[in-house]
Amino acid sequence: MKKKIEKIVNKDIETLLYLGDLDFYPDGKGGQLGDRGYINGNKFKTIYNDKIYLALNKTSQFHEGQEVEIEVDYDWEKEISVQHSAQHILSAAIFDELSGNTVGFQMGDDYSTIDIDIPSISKEMIELISNKTNRVIESNLPVNINEINIEDIDKYHLRKPVNKKVLENNEDIRIVSIGDYDHSACGGYHVGNTGEIGVLSIIKTEKVKGNLTRIYFLAGKRAIDFYMKLTNITNDLKKLLTCDEANLLKRVESLIEDNKIQRNKYKKILNEKIYKEVNALEDEIIFVEDDEEYIKAFNSAITSEKYLFIGKNDDTFYLSSRGYNCKKIVDLLRKEYDIKGGAGPFKGQVKSSVLDIDTFKKFINGNLEAISG
Ligand SMILES: [Zn+2]
Fold this sequence. Notes:
elongated; 373 residues; Threonyl-tRNA Synthetase, Chain A, domain 2
C-alpha cells in the first residue's frame, strides 16, 4: 500500500508518521494488537487509524510529502489470529464449565490476558478449563466469519450480548463462529480451523479489581517457546541441585531451611563479636567500614551515653548519634562536598562518590564544636 506522509511529529522516544486514512488493523481495537509490518522496509511497532509509530533511529530518511510503501507482516497477523482465536475458546470454556463471563481482554507482545467475573480460581478449575480448551482446539473445528444484519442476530446463540454502540449504529455485525461451540461478535483476526492454534497454556492467574480473576495465557508457538524455556531452566536447576525434577521442590525447600539455620548461627556469632568490640571502644567517635548488616548490628549494639557512629558501605554513610547532631553534620558536609541524602538530629544517611572515610574523619575532627549537642 502506497501512502503520502502528511505530517511528522517527533516525541522523546519515537516518531509519529501521519499518513491519512490507513486501511490496517489498528492497535487496541477489541483488545487486540494491531498489524505490524514495514514502512519503506523499516519495521514499525504500533499502528493507528491515521498514524504509524517508528523508533527514532529509523526516521531520518522520511520527510513530509514523501510517498512511502507500507507492507503488512503476515507472520505477525497469523500469530495474532492464533492468540485471538484461543481467547474465544478459552472464554467459551470458562462460560461453559464455570459459568464465568469474560469482562476484559488484553493482548500483549509476550502474553495475553482475560479478566473473568470469578473472584478466585483453584488449580482444579484451571486444569478443567485448560483441558476443555485444548480438546476444542484438537477437534479442529472450522472457524467461520459471517457479516449479518441486526435482525438476524437471534439466529445465533451468542455467548455475550452485542456491544450497545454497535447496535445503535445499526451496522452489520461480524459473527465469529467456532464450529457450533462458540459464536461471538468480533472484528479481530482469527484462524480458519482451531487445529491451527495447536495448544493453549495458562501460565498465571491473579486477583484483580477486587472480584475478578486475570488469566494469563499463551497459545501456539508462544506456548511451545515457553515450554522450551521452562525445560531449559529445569535442566539447569537439575544439574545445579543434582536431582531430578520430581525432587526439585523438596531440594530447594531443604536448602532454604538449611540457609535459615546457618544464618541464625552466623548472626549469633556476629553479635557476640560485635558485643566484644563495642565494649572495648574507648573513643566517642566510631568509624566502621563493613557491609550493611554488620554496620546496622554494630550501631544497635552501642549503649554509650555520648557517641557518634559513622558506618560506611560502598558509597553510603550511615550516621547515628547521642550528644552529637547528625543533622548539623550533614548540613555542614553538604557545604563542602557533593553528597545526597539527609538526616535528623539522631540519624542520617548520605551517599557520596567523592567522600572517603579518612576525609570524613578529618571533617569531623575539624568541626567537633559545631556538631555537638
Ligand atoms: Zn475475536
